[in-house]
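Quick note —
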Amino acid sequence: MQRPKVVVENPVAAQGASRRTLTVDRNDLEWAAGEGLISQPQVGQLWDALLKRHAERPQFDLAHLFWYAGAVLVLIAMSWFGIEMGTRYGAPAVLATSVVYSAAFLAGGARLWGQNLKVPGGLLVTLAVTMVPVAVGSLAESVGYPLSTYLSNTGFQFLLEGVTVASALLALRFFKFPFLTAPIAASLWLMSLTAVDYLFSGSGSFFGMWNEQLTVTMLFGIGITFVGLLVDGKREGDYSFWLYLFGVSAFWFSLSLLDSGSELGKAIYGLINVGLMFTSVLLSRRVFLVYGSFGVLYYVGHLFYTLFAGSMLFPLFLTLFGVSIIWAGVKYHKNQAAIDGFLLALVPAPLRDRLPGRD
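Predicted structure written out below.
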């Protein structure tokens, strides 16, 4: 049976070095005790403390995969069942179902939370939150406000989105579960798109305002990422993980889908992605590195294709480029601390001291 692992950060990061992470299991602590670095009784105490400290951080082990996958399946099943109920029995049935669902999820989530099963409990609470706008919408339809009417009314759309944000914030008041930022981020994004519909009403269909939607989504991504930066390391629980994930995803996808036009625009796109990779070193967040590297690969591939279009040299140069990336990865792995330290040294000291993990 595989032992659980805990990811810890390098404490020398506060002194300006790279804030690297290490995956530590109990065998490592046993080794440290054998080397005389810590005492044997401290092994169990330190391990239990680390497990408790990192219990709510996003992980990708089998248990967490089951929990999150189960939550997604439940959400799909609820949506399906709600549609069937609405089709057969009308809005009052959907209202009753959503209220029962929400109450049951909230009760079950609170029970698991009290048993220190924070992730499954928090996911149930999050599912309860997602039922709130369904209940409000079905209530409106039950009192004679048709679905087609309130979905085309930007004011009512703002109401539904605002209710979702408010219910998630209320849940966060009692359940400090970082994933509750997910419905908040999704609702704020929908609010930004609703604002575009309101501001550009009469300008055409959704796809007729495609560039406006992408621009607003990109700005929204920047805003959410900035909020993630503000809360990074400031609260118990890794709230910034989900904020960075939603923010960078919204920014990168909208930026990539926007028509960059000229070669200059594509070059700026490449430089922005290089900046994302640099940001990953500053903040020690892989999501910036993943999206930035995809963007750089896309731009370099575009350059090679433009230069060698229709030539047999294109696959050759593409192969050489792939090999050079592997070589660069090997060099970076061997010299990561020195490279990260050099990049951090380029950042002005006042700003560097304010970066997460360097206080």
